Automatic annotation (TrEMBL):
Domain of life: Bacteria
The entry's keywords: Methyltransferase, Transferase
Protein name (database record): Methyltransferase
Coiled-coil segments on the chain, per record: none
One matching Pfam family: Methyltransf_25
Source organism (scientific name): Streptomyces griseus subsp. griseus (strain JCM 4626 / CBS 651.72 / NBRC 13350 / KCC S-0626 / ISP 5235)
Length: 261
């Protein structure tokens, strides 16, 4: 379904199926992601992205609370962001002002911001928040729309762990710890998964339950989306350190490039 963008009669915007993050979720996000947000944990990500951005500008799709965008900006890379959730963007605003890191509220599949970028990036499995193949294709097209010739689009995405599903099983755990139980359930026919979370809420034995829907995609499917958008695969590795992508890789960092001519 499409809607016309108010005040821009010549432009149309896709109404995406991404689930909107609430203020409650946004306010606790940084605390729950503290381990993945430490300087040591982020250094390989920042080095990888800064190297691709070079002397140009970077645009982060689904920038969230700025877990990556804010320290990348502090590293000297001019960063702009697109974010669907206003509460998530409000948390980012506590860290960086609009003059330092501009953020546009909108969906990553169609929202357009001014200027060209040498790097567009989308981390932490977030393309899976787009729940249809059409929307994911539009996301690639939107990245290509923002890239200068020779610019690159980067996605970090998990490889679907379907080989861990024996016949008749629909769930795969991804985290079992004292404070958190996480597992995914799969609808193979629809290429969908639901992530379920049981998180200890305080020290009184209570647990908070949450879930989110995602559309998983294979690396080869993403390559076809990139080709539709006019981008070409340049590199695929298993992590931000650049480890080779193999059959055993649990995730991939993929880089597609926009042709120079």
């Amino acid at each position: 379904m499409r809607r016309q963008v108010p005040g821009r009669p010549a432009q149309w915007s896709l109404v995406t199926s991404s689930e909107l993050w609430s203020r409650e979720t946004a306010d606790r996000y940084d605390g729950e992601e503290a381990e993945n947000s430490s300087p040591a944990a982020l250094e390989p990500t920042l080095a990888f992205l800064a190297g691709l951005a070079g002397e140009g500008r970077a645009l982060e799709f689904a920038i969230g609370t700025g877990r990556v965008g804010v320290p990348l900006r502090a590293r000297g890379v001019p960063v702009a962001g697109i974010e669907l959730s206003e509460p998530m963007a409000a948390v980012l605003r506590r860290k960086a002002g609009a003059d330092t890191l501009p953020v546009t509220i909108g969906d990553m599949a169609t929202t357009v911001v001014p200027g060209e970028f040498t790097l567009v990036y989308l981390v932490y499995n977030t393309i899976s928040n787009l729940l249809t193949q059409d929307e994911q294709v539009e996301c690639f097209r939107n990245a290509a729309r923002h890239l200068a010739p020779g610019g690159r689009f980067v996605i970090e995405l998990a490889v679907p762990p379907l080989r861990f599903l024996p016949p008749g099983q629909v769930a795969v755990p991804f985290d079992v710890s004292d404070r958190h139980l996480g597992f995914d359930t799969f609808d193979l026919a629809e290429q969908m998964l639901v992530s379920h979370h049981f998180t200890r809420d305080g020290d009184d034995g209570r647990y908070r339950r949450g879930s989110s829907r995602h559309r998983y995609a294979w690396p080869a499917e993403l390559d076809l989306m990139a080709r539709i958008a006019g981008l070409k695969l340049e590199r695929r590795v298993a992590d931000w350190h650049g480890a080779p992508f193999t059959d055993d890789a649990e995730q991939h960092i993929s880089v597609w490039r926009k042709p120079v001519t």
